[in-house]
Amino acid sequence: MKFGWIYVSGTTWDERKEIVKDALESSIPAVYVPKEDIKKVRELGNIKVASKDLDADIVIIEKSGDLDILRKAKELGKETGIYIPIESKEDEEYAAEVSKYPYVDYIIVEGKDWTIIPLENLIAKLTDSNVKIVAVIEDVGEGKTAYEILEKGVDGTLLRSKDTNEIKDFSRMIEKINAERVKLDYATVKKVEPIGSGDRVCIDTCTIMEEGEGMLVGSYSRGLFLVHGETVENPYVATRPFRVNAGPVHAYVLCPGNKTKYLSELKAGDKVLIVNKDGITREAVVGRVKIERRPLVLVEAEYKGDILRTILQNAETIRLVGEGGKPISVVDLKEGDRVLIKFDESARHFGMAIKETIIER
Predict the structure, then answer these.
(1) Where does the record place the 3-dehydroquinate synthase N-terminal domain (predicted)?
(2) 353 φ, ψ (degrees, to nearest 5)
(3) How far is Cα 353 from Cα 222, in angstroms, rounded to an integer?
(4) Which residues of 228-242 are buried (b: 16+ CB within 10 A; e: fewer)?
């Protein structure tokens, strides 16, 4: 996962405070501040503080600084880093050398005259290293380039921008870079059958969904159906664009890292994947899970000769995603309709994909 920090600058605390607040509101994980600001930053909110002081969460020293400070920081359970301006080939070699030390977590490199070439060299040299490379950048465009160098890119960036409006753009860029993509395809509906009542789960998230977005849910781990969010206007009930009426308690839902959970396991604070019709994903935090007894419908669909099944609540507002990314209600679903699924040849063990033969019926 790529990450981004904010370099907090300004001549007064009032100026620097506004930058820290913007970072907090944009879910930036850490800010780099003068040591006199550490306590004040913590009073503003829960965010990691990087600074040249042992009281920081991420303890930084300058190039050729006292490495014993970092050893001490590691003993205290802190993260550590070295800030290295790259002004010569010797600086690049120094960065590669200190990256071998077990008490160094980050090397923060700032290109003075050269930017891309030193990063290329360091990325190539440190491919198998545990140290994380953080590039100092002046704007979002530089950040995008840094994350793409040699296809692997740096692990993180430190934005030192003169425009505080860039912080939100910076956060969105990192979110987009980290977004997982899943391969979706169409399966053909073979049967839609009411099956009686059962306990079904609504997942209420802390995120607003758009048309074409939902969650991947299914009775079988090998075939998850894209269940549409409750974003579609209708004359009967108000939309709930934060909600996916996902299915019964036994069903799987796709979560970050290509893991699954049973719907019955979900609780507030868990993370799930919101997926759109093109397979682009974003993480969402679960705000609440509602389990209620409702009438259910069985949906069977065929994909390349394999029969996949899922169960959903039998109601007009529950929709799968049909051709062209259009939501289609389960009450209108009929044999021959095509709906989006994620097919996976792997089995699942405690939610993780494994190569094992498991028969699902």
Answers:
(1) 1-173
(2) -70, 130
(3) 10
(4) bbbbeeeeeeeeebb
Contact 8, 32 (CB under 8 A): yes
pLDDT tens-place string over residues 91-119: 889 999 999 999 999 999 998 766 678 88
Largest CA distance in the chain: 73
Backbone angles phi, psi at 220, to 5 degrees: -115, 140
Candidates 218, 238, 240; CA nearest to 229 is 240
Q: Find tokens 């890292």 and name the residue.
A: 257
Quote the CA–CA distance of 246 and 258 in Å, as a whole number.
18
d(CA 282, CA 179): 6
Rounded distance, CA 167 to CA 27, Å?
10
CB 245 within 8 A of CB 200: yes
**Model pLDDT for residues 62-75, shown as the tens digit of each residue:** 998 899 999 999 99
Which residue has tokens 């299914």?
218
Query: What DSSP line would sit under 233-258, residue for residue?
Result: --SSS--BTTEEEEEETT-EEEEGGG
Q: Cα–Cα distance between 6 and 41 in angstroms, integer?
A: 13
The answer to whether residues 33 and 51 touch, using CB atoms and an 8 Å cutoff, is: yes
* Sole residue written with tokens 């209620």: 292
**SS3 (DSSP) at 150:** coil
Q: Which one, of 231, 278, 286, lies nearest residue 253 by Cα?
A: 286
**Single-letter amino acid code for the residue at 223:** G
Q: Cα-flanking dihedrals φ and ψ of residue 342, to 5°?
A: -115, 120
Dig out the tokens for 64 from the structure.
Answer: 């050729």
- Tens digits of residue pLDDT in 3-19: 999 999 999 999 999 99
Instruction: Report all structural domains of the chain as residue ranges with CATH numbers, in order of start.
Output: 3-178 (3.20.20.70), 185-354 (2.170.16)
Say if strands 48-51 and 327-329 run parallel, antiparallel, or are unpaired: unpaired
